[in-house]
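User: Before I run my own analysis I want an independent prediction to cross-check against. Here's the chain; please return only the structure tokens and, at the end, one sentence I can use as a sanity check.
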Amino acid sequence: MTDTIDVLLDEAQSLAGGGRLEEAIDLLADANRSAPDHRVEQRILELRHVAADGVLAAATPAPWPRPAPDRFPSGEIPEVAVDDLDSDTIASALQNHGSLLVRGLVDPERAAALRDTIDRAFDGAARVREEPGADVGPDLVPFQPAEKYPFGIYERAFANFGSGVLGVDSPRAMFQMTDALEAAGVRSIFTEYFDERPVFSVKKTTLRRTEPGSLAGWHQDGAFLGTETRALNVWTALSPCGVEAPSLDVFADSFDHLVPTGGPEIYDWSVSDETAESYDTSKIVRPVFDTGDALLFDHMTLHRTGVDPSMTKTRYAIEMWFFAPSTYPMEQIPICF
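Assistant: Structure tokens:
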């Protein structure tokens, strides 16, 4: 088997060396679907990172925002089944209601595999905290971006503090999740939504295993991503949440400005409870997710972890932030989708 993987990796390297990065990624992905291998998954992630440079260099911004009449006049968070998801639906929901709930984005079998991968990644991260420098591969493989990007201890500590592990430190999770999204047709939908090939963020792609009683603070990601970027978060529940396990609290409304930050909250870009409650609290929604459901929202959406003392179960999720390449915040470090 090792010889077969070596031949496959050599073939992919030949393609990549000739500038055929997409072919190299597709070759490895096709092989990994039938016979998963951690070395192949790590190489796919590395090639996606290399390919992102070309995507960003070729990017040309399209007119924005795209016209999007309100298809969902109820005032709640709009919901659609994954088979009904398209770019116009995303634009309408986000521009008029701040978010879109997509039912069944990831099928239960894929979600179960991702939960297992997340457990192994968390176990690996815990061991590294206890024993710095411990080799816990392939469950946890520290991602190494191109030298031009500063990255490392701070980003991993930030993710750990927020009940997370950086997704790129688990090549298997990244393969499983990108493959699940591609199977759902998301890449072409997001390309049409942005009118550009989407890229996602190293720093803002996080594996979540959130315990009851976790910290919750209102925020808009635009407070640190910038207001002019074109972003789309795919927050996918990998276990049921919203009743017995933490969910999200979300304002079912679109914001065209940053809400004032400050107060006795978790981060300096957090929004205090008092400030959040000065807005229309009747629009605060805590969605109930089944396994594989996802909430799509952008960097202006005001939200927090949705938790209360009655919750007793752990929630598994993956958060992935996608961007239009022409407005990519480079400090986030790009990965091609």
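Sanity check: The chain has one domain: 62-336.
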